[in-house]
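Hey L., structure's done. Input below.
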Amino acid sequence: MKVIFLDIDGVLNSAIYDAERDRSKLSYIDKTRLPLLKQIVDATNAKIVLSSTWREHWNRSCELCDDNGKYLNDCFAEFGLSIYDKTPDPKLHSDRDEEIREWLLTQRDVENYVILDDTYYNWGNLKDHFVKTSMYFGRGLESRHVLEALKILNSN
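Output:
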């Protein structure tokens, strides 16, 4: 299985989007970024694992999602995407890199993975799987990041 560890803020939205978005409705996700994420999923059959703090809102069991978790599911479904899983509870760990490492330790069938995030953590041995987007320069996930992610996921 190939996996995309997905941050939301700074990947599926940006400061530019935040300034433009309609604040009268739930609109945290820049839906123009979802076709780019779908390109990665379609080209690799990768599963999406939330590594974002948004994972606190999401649960595999839809009825256990709060409004923001349901919003994520709805946005993703609109583009034929779905969330497979989430990394462990952030209260148990100090950094996202630790949460990703723990998730990987619990999985036996991960052949490759990519981390889409706008923040540098102590990636250590995960750094070769990291694609850095930006909240403030550009719109988050962009075509060049898709190409980087595909290169990582398709390498053996």
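Residues 58 and 65 are 5 Å apart (CA to CA). The beta strands are 2-6, 47-50, 83-86, 112-117, 130-132.

-- N.
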